[in-house]
């Protein structure tokens, strides 16, 4: 089947090819809103997808880099988990003299975000895009790949080996955290799993299981949804646990509150480590925690994208960056029974 052309769009919308080209390249100052809507509607009806390679050959690079998030809102607040990633992206864009486009119009009425919410690839306005978010849509990312649209995902995604990604290697830091607890005298340690079950969470769990064997310790595994005032810190201490590692940053303040309400003192009664970075405004900000190079990873994601655009890296390039060495001793103490 012949792929639809800009001429087909022009005929369907009743406009000139020049108008179609201007809309496709984001140069809409001279195009009325009504005409733009007709052109985009025609693109949707014809299932038109622009060819990035052909656009580049025509000199269509505009040095615009897109940023798309699957989160409900862009991480502009300093305590948002993805904020420092975005800061790193912005800093690197300044160094490379690239402009950033935040794709805010991809939000659906239900609050979720979709690259193809209007039927066409909204990201085409940029030369390439950095994509992030916990609830990523793998089908959309596969479609982007099939269209040969250049993009890089923040975070490793085992289900998408064909997709370029820049992520964090959590395994060494998890091992180091458990080693620190063992060196402090702990042998019975709890592991509180979070609600997410993506590659980063599985990486942490796999590393913990490996460390459990190597360090000769016993891990007691718990689920966040099953953890209450009755089954949380008070119960853990009664069961003989002397330390807990919390997988998800959002669960650390929850455990902190449960412990305080139960009269369990951290770290006197129960040492605690978060296997993530905890926001400064969190009740658990003082916890021992991982130091994740978010800004460096964000900056590197943008660098990788530009190198893909320039043909210096393949479209499926993947790399991981380790967390900074060590955790703070803030909430790690020797167990009372040691």
UniProtKB/TrEMBL annotation:
Pfam families: LacI, Peripla_BP_3. It comes from the Bacteria. Gene3D superfamilies: 3.40.50.2300, lambda repressor-like DNA-binding domains. Keywords: DNA-binding, Repressor, Transcription, Transcription regulation. Residues 5-49 form the HTH cro/C1-type domain. Transmembrane segments: none annotated. This is DNA-binding transcriptional regulator, LacI/PurR family. It comes from Auraticoccus monumenti.
